[in-house]
Amino acid sequence: MSSKFTTVRLAVAGEHFEILVNPENALSYKLGRKIEISQVLGVEEIYSDSNKGLRVSARGTRW
């Protein structure tokens, strides 16, 4: 199992979110191959800044 992950960034309604993914599995998922989402995600957390370890709280979002 590879321990290398990449950061995926998303901006929604002025808020910034980041998740860590396995790049090989993420590409397979995007291409429509049957792969469990748990194999794509590096961790099951959503961050505002993954380098600093700042997690997004569920109550802190506007949507």
Task: Summarize the entry for a quick read.
The chain has helices spanning 23-30, 37-40, and strands spanning 6-12, 15-21, 47-49, 54-55. By secondary structure, the protein is of the alpha+beta class.
How much of the sequence is in beta strands? 25-35%
In round numbers, the mean pLDDT is 88
- Shape category: globular
Element order: H for helix, E for strand: EEHHEE
Strand count, sense and barrel status of the largest sheet are: 2 strands, antiparallel
**What is the number of helical segments per DSSP (H or I, 4+ residues)?**
2
CATH superfamily: Ribosome maturation protein SBDS, N-terminal domain
The CATH architecture term is: 2-Layer Sandwich
Which CATH first-tier class would you pick? Alpha Beta
Helix content, binned percent: 10-25%
User: Which structural class best describes the helix and strand composition?
Assistant: alpha+beta
- The number of distinct β-strands equals 4
